[in-house]
Amino acid sequence: MPVEGRATPAALVTGAGRRRIGSVIAVALARKGYAVSLHYNASRQPAEQTVAEIQAAGGLAACWQADVADPAQVERLFDRHLERFGRLDALVTTAAVWDPKPLEETTDDDVLRQFEVNTLGTFLCCRRGGLIMAGQSGGGAIVTIGDWATARPYIGYAAYFISKGAIPTMTRMLAVELSARNPAVRVNAILPGPVMLPEGLAPEDRRQVVAATLLKREGTPEAVAQTALHLVENNYVTGVCIPVDGGRTIAAGEADRPAPAPGADC
């Protein structure tokens, strides 16, 4: 079992409050021996439950509240992580929001809010986390979360796709910037497909989403977590964006149906 201290690798996962992809990744990292900070915005209780589960299994974990769109709160989040665990070896940014709305009803505030959380929030966390890693001899690994459908967007999520479309470019930019400061810092992205489909999705819509994948089945948070672990541990991969979508990106089929990437508590 890990022993708290500077010899223990440490990770921070944003958007790990609600029981979605972020919390699954946090648990997976804890099982690999990482001391894990779980970030949440409003979902304190489920975050604390995940921390308790990790601790009960012999792992090290803590949770911290922050609005990732607020630079001061992001700084405080990372300060608290460092005060508790002393270092940062892995950062996974799953915090996101998505609010479906017809294009005719999408306001400038809708676009700004989703940009602030999904784009700016990711950047603020990656900048602070990446610079921490750049100051460590062993560097570290950052994994951002995009969306496969930014290349093939569907209707009803204009503000969301604008904000998520920046993630691949941001990932490549950060890989270049941070490696120039420390070649041991790597940055990669995961582009999830139909994983944890929205609650209340009509059965016919669900059927069509699944049928539009090559594997003909819905994905799981564990599939995304496995990819995150690979990107954290493989020290010769950087600047890439990996779809975890059952082949949805390249599958030919019916018109795209609403199946946004799994969000989290931002």
Can you describe what's shown?
This protein has helices at 21-31, 44-56, 71-85, 108-134, 158-164, 167-181, 203-211, 221-233, and strands at residues 10-14, 35-40, 61-65, 90-93, 140-145, 185-192, 241-244. Helices cover 41% and strands 14% of the residues. It is α/β, with parallel strands linked by helices and 266 residues long. The protein has one domain (10-244): 3-Layer(aba) Sandwich (Rossmann fold), CATH 3.40.50.720. The protein has a seven-stranded parallel β-sheet with strand order 3-2-1-4-5-6-7, sandwiched between helices. The model is unreliable at 1-6 (pLDDT under 50). α1 (21-31) links the parallel β1 (10-14) and β2 (35-40). It is globular. α1 (21-31) crosses α8 (221-233), α3 runs parallel beside α4 (108-134) and α4 runs parallel beside α5 (158-164). The protein contains eight helices and seven strands.
Structural class: alpha/beta
The fourth-level CATH homologous superfamily is NAD(P)-binding Rossmann-like Domain
Radius of gyration: 18 Å
- Largest sheet properties: 7 strands, parallel
Order of helices and strands: EHEHEHEHEHHEHHE
Please tell me the total number of domains: 1
**Total helix count?**
8
